Amino acid sequence: AQSVSQHNHHVILSEAASLELGCNYSYGGTVNLFWYVQYPGQHLQLLLKYFSGDPLVKGIKGFEAEFIKSKFSFNLRKPSVQWSDTAEYFCAVEYGNKLVFGAGTILRVKS
Amino acid sequence: KAGVTQTPRYLIKTRGQQVTLSCSPISGHRSVSWYQQTPGQGLQFLFEYFSETQRNKGNFPGRFSGRQFSNSRSEMNVSTLELGDSALYLCASSLDPTDTQYFGPGTRLTVL
Comparing C-alpha atoms, which of B32, B64, B25, B79 is closest to residue B51? Predict the structure, then answer.
């Protein structure tokens, strides 16, 4: 079955710390990859996406993600987090025309 | 450009009733997908519509159904509501099934 695994359910960081959230997916041929974010009280927003080309993808608000095909991974990174990055982050993989989401990672940034 | 809109935003129903939720996609978007979000199961795909045709369906019982109209607006219906149907129902639209999906704010359904 198609699945997406996010390694950490809760992450707590201090401001200015570096962030890396892991995401692995089950093999399913060609896939499109996404990271979404849900800030407290707001709806789901697209952070970044990878369809093809450069495996290092830059998104909004200083986030980036690297697609490593051999590891079936698409990890999200940010060099220096801010308090406003406190949110839940979802990795999603598009298999065919269906988006499969990971369980989400709740990030809390302490000021 | 206006985003995806969903109505109503909040709904309270009792077991056994049925409910209809509405989604208006971003202007020009012809593909609409529905998702259910719960604390226990996370985000799960319900179904996808494109040009008034259901293209994909997730693993949900037949009580969950949907449709899409010629103006791309979509509705989903849940009949014979159960307590476990309490969730946030999200709609996402895209230009076509191969394009990035953009999500609406969701409809919070509570079943008592």
Answer: B32
Report the pLDDT value the prediction gives residue A96, as an integer from 0 to 100.
Answer: 73
- In one-letter notation, the amino acid at residue A38 is Q
pLDDT band at B1 (very low <50, low <70, confident <90, very high): low
Q: Which residues of A touch B55 (CB under 8 A)?
A: 97
For residue A28, pLDDT beyond 70: no
Out of A43, A92, A104, the one facing B106 most closely (by C-beta) is A43
Q: How far is B15 from chain A (nearest CA, A)?
A: 27
**Of residues B83 and A31, more confidently modeled:** B83
Q: Which of B94, B45, B8 is nearest to A46 (CA)?
A: B94
A chain contacts of residue B105, beta-carbon cutoff 8 Å: 42-43
Alpha-carbon distance of A46 to A50, in angstroms, equals 11
* Distance in Å, alpha carbon of B12 to nearest chain A alpha carbon: 19
Terminal-residue alpha carbon distance, chain A: 41
Q: Do A98 and B101 touch (CB under 8 A)?
A: no
User: Would you report the helix, strand and coil content of chain A in percent, each value rounded to 5?
Assistant: 10, 55, 40
Backbone angles phi, psi at B22, to 5 degrees: -120, 150
Please answer whether residues A111 and A100 qualify as being in contact, where contact means their C-beta atoms are separated by less than 8 angstroms.
no
